[in-house]
Amino acid sequence: MIQKKYENSAKAVADIENGSTVLVGGFGGSGLPTELITALMEQGAKNLTVVSNNIGAVSDGVAKLISNGQVSKIICSFPVGPHAEELVQLLESGRIELELVPQGTLAERIRAGGAGVGAFYTPTGVETELGEGKEVREINGKKHLLEYAITGDYALIKANKADRWGNLVYNKAQRNFNPVMASAATITIAEVEEIVEVGEISAEEIVSPSIYVHRLITVDTKEERRVAGNE
User: Fold this and answer.
1) Are 188 and 140 in contact (CB under 8 A)?
2) CA 48 to chain centre
């Protein structure tokens, strides 16, 4: 069985290219891959499309990448917060594009991307500004909007624990968008608090199977992580 790489955060994000679509997990601060976000900020990839539930404060979360001039488009449900004034200025100047998506629709678009479903219909957003320009179909007497799946080149996620193969366990609210994002990206990078041996996690506890997880880092103060095997 092929082992996962135990990366340091800088190495884990080193190949994220300009123009990539990056899915970033988290709901507020819960399940937010802070170390990976910081590493991506330091790496400096630009013209990113970032998909995240919310943006966060300037000092934390996706707002770091926005403030650093790395994001050209943000797809999210909750763009308000301490950074809102800066975001408005970027929007008005045309330096960033915002696609606002209802939270349930955002989760389902990402889930659909991971499941190989190209699009789906939902009544959410019908006859609102969010539905303008979208295909409308009546199903069982109710209007629905056509929404397209979301996939990413990379997903940056956080879990509580992983085994060496990358099977992930989440702690309560930490679960949020992370599992669906793990399945919807070409390369998923997981930030975890602990890595254990294969077999130490019960199959009943595993939420994200290792097939979806390509790289692991642990959150600690060590500069280097041991590399074991190949992706």
Assistant:
1) no
2) 13
Collapse the DSSP code of 49 into the 3-class scheme (helix H, G, I; strand E, B; otherwise coil) and give the result. strand
Question: Which runs of E-coded beta strand occur in 78-200?
Answer: 97-100, 119-122, 136-139, 142-148, 152-163, 168-169, 185-196
Q: What would the pLDDT profile of 71-127 be if each residue is shown by its tens digit?
A: 999 999 988 766 667 777 888 888 899 999 999 999 999 999 999 999 999 999 999
| Residue 127 one-letter amino acid | E
Q: Where are the alpha helices (DSSP H) in the chain?
A: 9-12, 34-43, 63-67, 84-92, 103-115, 178-184
Inter-residue long-range contacts of 134-139, CB under 8 Å, 24+ positions, other chains counted: none
| 175, 156 contact by CB (below 8 A) | no
Q: How many angstroms separate the CA atoms of 45 and 121, rounded?
A: 34
- Residue ranges of domains in the chain, CATH in brackets: 5-116+150-218 (3.40.1080.10)
Beta carbons within 10 angstroms of residue 173's beta carbon: 12
List beta partners, residue 27: 30
In this prediction, residue 58 carries a pLDDT of 60
47: left (phi over 0), alpha (psi -120 to 50) or beta: left
Handedness of CA 210, 24, 174, 117 (dihedral sign): negative
- Could you tell me how far CA 69 lies from the centroid of its own chain? 19
**Of 158, 152, 151, 155, the residue nearest 26 (C-alpha):** 158
Tokens of 184: 């919807």
